[in-house]
Design a protein that fits this description.
By secondary structure, this protein is mainly α. It has a domain at 34-71 and 121-298. 75% of the residues lie in helices and 0% in strands. The chain has 14 helices and no strands.
Length: 317
């Protein structure tokens, strides 16, 4: 059994087991009633937020990749949209990144830079989720025990420190890699990737813009969840969404589910139960949130179906 097949089997098993547990608590009649009461205004608002989310994500990645390649913005946008669609068919969280890095590397020959751009993009995005989650927990002083606030402050500090250290990936790789590994394939790839990530130290303005856009992306997603929740009749204040949604977004990004189903729904039910939300609306909220991501991938599906990309361009690193 190959490693890839084994990992796929594990993800299918996790998805099946969690879904089986989740479905036991879902009331089909209540689910139909909640969906029937979903207003068209909420649907249109949600679609608009999905469009804004995609624009911000494209803008964020363009800020990262633009200093490193001469590919036109229209082609980079196409690569982003198509790779996001293809990523929806691959392991959650990393499939789109891998497809994007492959596409840029194939078009330019700059594999190291392509991988670095998606690594930094994902890394700053995860940082934004973590920081927003910490801020949401700290803002809910009355709902969070002192010990949890202390742990949250420590986690925030570790996130910021780890992110700063990541900018020195080239020096870290150079200092920690054993001499015997330097000429091996993994050693050469690690060195090239570390150098490509370290190069972003020279682009502080771009990184600041990426960080700001990452916060904006996660803010839009929290608002999207609130709109979906209101449409389903979930009666929670907007402030609560800042506490539980970052956790759910992080779980959705983990490469453990099939198509974003299973573990994300289980996590949503688990995080909303203490707030008095029943399993059925929690399940629907997670499923609609995943569905919104699928809607966001429609432009990429259209571009993919429209034809093959242009011939590769030979750019030297």
């Amino acid at each position: 059994m190959s490693t890839a097949f084994g990992w796929t089997f594990v993800r299918i098993a996790i998805t099946a087991i969690v879904l089986a547990w989740v479905v036991r608590g879902v009331d089909a009649g209540a689910a139909r009633a909640a969906l029937a009461g979903f207003s068209w205004s909420a649907i249109l608002f949600a679609v608009a937020l999905v469009a804004i989310d995609r624009v911000l994500m494209i803008w964020r990645w363009l800020l990262l990749i633009r200093p490193m390649t001469s590919l036109p913005g229209t082609e980079l946008t196409r690569i982003f949209l198509v790779s996001s669609f293809l990523g929806s068919l691959l392991p959650a969280g990393v499939g789109g990144d891998a497809a994007r890095a492959y596409s840029v590397g194939r078009r330019t020959g700059q594999t190291g830079i392509a991988i670095a751009s998606v690594v930094v993009d994902r890394w700053v995005g995860l940082l934004a989720v973590g920081v927003l989650g910490c801020a949401g927990i700290l803002a809910s002083i009355g709902q969070v025990p002192d010990a949890a606030r202390t742990a949250t402050l420590a986690a925030t500090f570790m996130l910021l420190a780890g992110s700063a250290a990541g900018l020195f990936a080239d020096r870290i790789v150079d200092g920690l890699m054993p001499a015997a590994w330097r000429h091996s394939w993994p050693g050469r790839m690690s060195t090239r990737l570390g150098a490509a990530i370290g190069a972003y130290r020279q682009h502080g303005g771009a990184l600041m813009g990426v960080a700001a856009l990452s916060i904006a992306v996660q803010t839009v997603r929290v608002i999207l969840a609130w709109v979906l929740g209101r449409g389903l009749g979930i009666d929670l204040p907007f402030s609560d969404y800042w506490v539980f949604m970052p956790v759910n977004i992080l779980v959705l990004l983990l490469p453990l589910s099939i198509g974003g189903f299973g573990l994300p729904q289980g996590t949503m039910i688990w995080t909303l139960a203490p707030l008095g939300v029943a399993a059925t609306p929690a399940f629907l909220l997670s499923t609609l949130f995943v569905g919104a991501g699928i809607v966001g991938n429609i432009p990429g599906a259209v571009l993919y179906a429209a034809g093959t990309p242009p011939a590769p361009v030979n750019e030297l690193e």
